[in-house]
Amino acid sequence: MTDADHDAPLLAGAELDHVEVFVPDRAAAAAWYARVLGLRPIARWAHWATPRGPLMLGAGGAMIALFERTPCAARDGVEHHRVALRVGAAAFRAFVARAASGPVYDAAGAPLAELTPVDHGQAHSVYFCDPWGNRCEVTTYEPQESRPDSQE
C-alpha cells in the first residue's frame, strides 16, 4: 500500500444506505412513515421482514429499517440521535405545510400543530418525533427556495 492509498477517502462515493429504527408495532409504524414521510415498503427487501428482521421502507435512495423492538427512547442509555432526510425546496415546503396532519410530535409526545423551519444559513430544517419518540428531521440545502413565499 502506498502513501497515496492512505490519502484517498476510504468511503469515497459512499452513500447512506439505511437507518435502523426500533418501534413496538411495525405495522403501525410503517403506516405512520408512509403517511407522514412518504416512505413505503420496498418489495425487493420484503423477505427480510421476518419477526426479528427489518421492514425496509424507502423513497428514492433513503431507507429506514423498521425493527419491532423496544424503542431506543424507552431504553436507558440506548438511542440514536435523529433520522434526517434531505429533500429539495419544493418538497420541503410541501412537507412543512402538511406535516402536522401526520400527526408529528414533540419530544414529550404531544402532537405538534405546526412545524417551524430552523434557518441554519445554508440549510433549513424542521424537527419532530414519530409516535414512539424517535427523533426525525427533514432538511433542504436550498434555503432561499424553501421559504413559504418562494416558488421554484
UniProtKB/TrEMBL annotation:
Gene3D superfamilies: 2,3-Dihydroxybiphenyl 1,2-Dioxygenase, domain 1. Coiled coil: none annotated. GO terms for molecular function: dioxygenase activity; ferrous iron binding. Residues 15-141 form the VOC domain. Its cofactor is Fe(2+). The keyword Oxidoreductase applies. The keyword Iron applies. Belongs to the extradiol ring-cleavage dioxygenase family. This is VOC domain-containing protein. It comes from Roseisolibacter agri.
